Amino acid sequence: MSWLNSVRNALSFGSKPKTTSDNLWHKCKGCEQMVFSKEWEENQYVCPKCDHHDRIGPTERFAELFDEGSWQVIAAPKVTEDPLKFRDTKRYSDRLKTARADTAEVDALVNAHGRIDGHPAVIGVQDFAFMGGSMGLAVGEAFVRGVENAIREHCPYVIFTASGGARMQEGILSLMQMPRSTVAIVMLRDAGLPYIVVLTDPTSGGVMAAYAMLGDIQIAEPRATLAFTGRRVIESTIREKLPDDFQTSEYYLEHGLIDMVVHRHQLKARLATVIGYLTAGEKQAA
Q1: Which pairing describes strands 217-220 and 195-204: parallel, antiparallel, or unpaired?
Q2: Which residue of 54, 117, 130, 237 lies most exposed, with the fewest beta carbons within 10 A?
Q3: What is the mean pLDDT of residues 240-256?
Q4: pLDDT digits (tens, 9 = 90+) for 131-145
Q5: Residue 198, SS3?
Q6: Residue 17, pLDDT above cutoff 70
Q7: How many CB atoms lie within 10 A of CB 176?
């Protein structure tokens, strides 16, 4: 392509983007087969060939789970940014700017209030695309804000976890979000409200050691990687070979660590059923 054509393509002056092979097809991370992007999106980002559940962000989650026109995003709380003035190969502040530009989100946890098959609920969704869904001050504060909104609206809080763990750029301040989230969950239970966790791929580290495993009901998407620490670290420590399905949703279910594994297509209906069971007593009292 000539320099002139390159400039013309860059200065499209509002012309519609061209349909190319890059956006027409999606390569599945599970079976590595090529799938029509539209078919993949209409299938809720689940591969129609191998059933691999791809990672999705808050906007897609809310659209899939809430009744149409019933939900509203809860404003992200303001926190101190880059409290340690951290820098590795890049400034932490620059990493935040890049993540915000890529995801259009303020940070890695977004809350929304709405209805699931008529049941009011607050849903929090961690976005792995935002710095690996890492837990820092903003995520901790957003979690507390989500719980406070659930208490105010007198409804369950449902959290969708997807995280590599604590955010290293915030040091000990990120680890402090573990007890903060635990206290928030106690507040929710003192109010007599359900706390439901949906584990998605991947959930690990400090998040797994905190609010990800404290649900009244523990649900997971199929074949999600769920772990506190890495497989190689465990094998080198215990000097044994781990099972092939170790640290997967199915392994956790088999060993009683979670309550159910639910396909994304059935997730809304299952959440509505669970919420209906857990709040039935309150409806009768009302």
Answers
A1: parallel
A2: 237
A3: 96
A4: 999 999 999 999 999
A5: strand
A6: no
A7: 15
Domains of the chain, CATH where assigned: 24-54 (no CATH), 55-285 (3.90.226.10)
3-state secondary structure of 199: strand
Residues 121, 102, 199, 42, Cα dihedral to 10°: 80
Q: What percent of the chain lies above the pLDDT cut of 70?
A: 90
> How many CA atoms within 13 Å lie on the side-chain side of 214?
18
Strands 119-126 and 109-116: antiparallel
In sequence order, what are the beta bridge partners of 183?
Answer: none
Write out pLDDT tens, residues 81-101.
Answer: 999 999 999 999 999 999 999
Is the separation of the CB atoms in 212 and 191 below 8 Å? Answer: no
For residue 140, give both structure tokens.
């901790």
Contact 227, 246 (CB under 8 A): no
Single pTM value for the model: 0.90
Placement of tokens 């404290």 in the chain? 214
Helix (H, G, I), strand (E, B) or coil at 236: helix
Q: Are strands 25-27 and 119-126 parallel, antiparallel or unpaired?
A: unpaired
In degrees, to the nearest 5, what angle opens at C-alpha 14 toward C-alphas 9 and 18? 55
Helices (H), the chain: 3-10, 21-24, 37-42, 58-65, 92-103, 137-153, 172-175, 177-190, 205-208, 231-238, 249-254, 267-278, 280-285
263 residue type, one letter = H
